[in-house]
Write a structure and sequence with these properties.
With 355 residues, this protein is an alpha+beta fold. Helices cover 41% and strands 18% of the residues. The strands form 2 sheets. The protein has a 7-stranded mixed sheet, sandwiched between helices. It has a two-stranded antiparallel ribbon with strand order 2-3. Strand 6 and strand 7 form a beta hairpin. It binds 2-{3-[(4-chloropyridin-2-yl)amino]phenoxy}-N-methylacetamide (2NL).
């Protein structure tokens, strides 16, 4: 390192010191490792305040006036030499850093792509979507109702009065609020649709329902139902039958056999059960249908006039049909599933099979 000159300076000494400074600086700059080291050298030699060159220039004032221009030229030469050495070294250090980064960050374009796991629709959700799609083609609009219902809409307006023996058909879970319960079917939602809309009505109502059940392979305490309701002038049982047969063919295949049997519900009169030919057996000895060759997929009927009245609809002018199906049942038939509990387990090994 160069020492700043003392007060007495002659031209020869100053020139020698300038040359010495240059001869020291250039190899140090050339040999510096990295941009930070170059910044340090820059400051050391060229820094305005403590830099070595500034220190030498302070000696100029002590020289005779006629010597000063020559020293000025010499100082500038040294400054420019150091500056251009720095520029060149910085360029080299910069590209070396870039090279190193590029080498470290290379992309292997031949590497196999990372697989992004894709979610699937729950088979119940997917089955509801298929049901609403089919009935959507018949003009049915999808509605939703609340899961917490009232005794009035869940039972009384469906022609099931308090203490009526028909209540035994629905083992109900109650809520700790007087008159409130978890809906046992989506029918109360249809009552709400009747209150909200004017005929003609074609409503579809999917949703979760609740019953107090002993759990086994075919009973769960929560399950999904899709109900349909059509109300118009002159709607009759033939309309119901025609639309249900079309639905069964769209859902299970064109050639699927169907049949209607008499049934009973308090809210429909007459009531029917709708069966399809068993898809599993095609003959006797079948565990799925109990050897009858038929499987019931839904219940239905003509809406009881009293229920229309509760819905604010004049039964003298309008008639309606309604049907209700258990979604798990339909999904189990479509996919050959034999235990209803798998729908609630959340086991990804099961759910991942529905793509
Ligand atoms: C079943 C049978 C059924 C209905 C649901 C209904 C709704 C209103 C009026 C009349 Cl607002 N009926 N719904 C009718 C017949 C059968 O469901 O067991 N489903 C799983």
């Amino acid at each position: 390192m160069m020492e700043a000159p003392l007060t007495t300076v002659d031209l020869a000494t100053l020139t020698a010191q300038l040359r010495a400074l240059r001869d020291e600086a250039l190899p140090r700059i050339a040999g510096a490792a990295g941009l930070a080291a170059l910044d340090e050298l820059d400051l050391h030699y060229l820094g305005r305040k403590g830099g070595a060159l500034s220190g030498l220039m302070r000696g100029i004032g002590a020289l005779p006036v006629e010597d000063r221009p020559r020293v000025g030229v010499a100082v500038n030469e040294v400054r420019e030499a150091v500056e251009s050495a720095l520029v060149e070294a910085r360029g080299r250090a910069g590209s070396a850093a870039l090279e190193a980064r590029l080498a470290a960050e290379t992309v292997d374009v031949s590497a196999p792509a990372r697989v992004i796991p894709r979610g699937t629709l729950h088979p119940i959700v997917e089955t509801i979507a298929r049901i609403t799609e089919i009935f959507g083609q018949f003009g049915f609009v999808t509605y939703e109702g609340p899961e917490v219902e009232t005794d009035v809409t869940n039972f009384q307006m469906l022609n099931i009065p308090p203490d009526h023996p028909a209540r035994d058909l629905w083992d109900t879970m109650y809520v700790d609020i007087e008159g409130a319960l978890l809906r046992t079917h989506t029918s109360p939602g249809q009552i709400r649709v009747m209150h909200a809309e004017q005929p003609p009505i074609r409503a579809l109502l999917p949703g979760r329902c609740f019953r107090y059940e002993a759990i086994d392979a075919s009973h769960a305490s929560e399950f999904f139902q899709v109900e349909g309701l059509m109300v118009d002038e002159g709607t009759n049982l033939a309309d119901l039958k025609g639309q249900l047969v079309e639905f069964a063919h769209a859902m299970f295949g064109e050639g699927t056999p169907t049949r209607f049997r008499p049934g009973y519900y308090p809210f429909t009169e007459p009531s029917v059960a709708f069966d399809i030919g068993c898809l599993v057996c095609g003959g006797p000895g079948c565990p799925a249908c109990g050897r009858t060759g038929w499987i019931t997929i839904l219940g239905a009927g003509m809406v009881h006039p009293v229920v229309l009245q509760y819905g604010g609809i004049d039964p003298e002018r309008y008639q309606g049909f309604a049907f209700g199906m258990g979604v798990e049942r339909i999904a189990m038939l479509r996919h050959g599933i034999t235990d209803i509990r798998v729908f609630l387990d959340g086991d990804l090994r099961f759910l991942g099979q529905f793509r």
